[in-house]
């Protein structure tokens, strides 16, 4: 933990602290958090320091009996009806109890996962002048690279850099994506879309609906790919990689590397979601909680900062909110009854 000297230093800084100027100076470098680390920063700048009361204990959860979220094997979901029913039961339980689960044998080749992670690393570790071309806060761009999308509106910045792109329903042209990760983004998105349709089928059955119900509601129509690069942090106890939040989508498919740091809030405790080789992390989003009439849970989660890095992750968000739409979503009518009215 930070010593009393560092705490006193932070308090002194706060008395003469022009946050807006600090944010603008950081933003204007277009080098992100990686730029700070490359410059040899040994202390976390004030704009990244999180009040302790807002983030709670910033350590990996430990204990003799650690809580482990479900890891579900999807092998044979389309070949063996008996196994599929068992998988649906596990997906139902995980979605109702945890809001998170991991999947293995999901059908996306290991080589595709590895290349996606490598593509993220190539982009962020290329020459800064090449990256600067894509640095923007205009979210209507086909490809957006920056550090902290909410840099000027959030109470505190997070220790990470990000790029994102809307991959569906209107995918970017190849030339609109950086060469460093162009091909792998397009292939990974195609594979994740296929997996998403399968997952929505399992979730539909878990709700007692026809397999294609959620797909017909266009839950798999929109896809955003968001890649995070978390550089090593000199004082991880003072900041976070990603603040506590829930996902405002139907479903999130996450590829994380082996460094760890992802945690979910379960029964008022932070629970680690440890990396499992070859697995993808799946979590329920706010929209899925809404349309399932609160049967499936969208839960808050965060990412710790770490002295080890960089940590790399790729989150794929299934949602209709990325493009202009007149669709309104509410609880699925087939799930409602006198005994199960809409949750307000």
From TrEMBL:
Protein name, as recorded: Fe2OG dioxygenase domain-containing protein
Pfam families according to UniProt: 2OG-FeII_Oxy (PF03171), DIOX_N (PF14226)
Superkingdom field: Eukaryota
InterPro entries reported for this sequence: DIOX_N, IPNS-like_FE2OG_OXY, IPNS-like_sf, Oxoglu/Fe-dep_dioxygenase_dom
Assigned keywords, A-Z: Iron, Metal-binding, Oxidoreductase
Domain Fe2OG dioxygenase residue range list: 219-321
Region (Disordered): 1-21
Record SUPFAM superfamilies: Clavaminate synthase-like
Family designation: Belongs to the iron/ascorbate-dependent oxidoreductase family.
